[in-house]
Predict the 3D structure of the following.
Amino acid sequence: MIDKERQEISVGMITEALPNAFFRVKLKEAEVLAYLSGKMRLHRIKVMIGDLVEVVIDPYGGKGRIVRRLDNRKANLNN
């Protein structure tokens, strides 16, 4: 594989925390089930209900992967 395929990254808000580090994330177009990426678990980055996060959507329609927690203060100033 020479080039990595483009990953679809969306910004959403966490609406519900589920067992086993799963989260329900509301995006603009839909609500998906997402889990924390390995780096976020490794560095113990906490996410809570109401946080804005970046989610990489699985191209096959499965779960999303939370890759970054966004700074809510900056996001609220821009909106």
Summary: Residues 72-78 form the longest helix (7 residues).
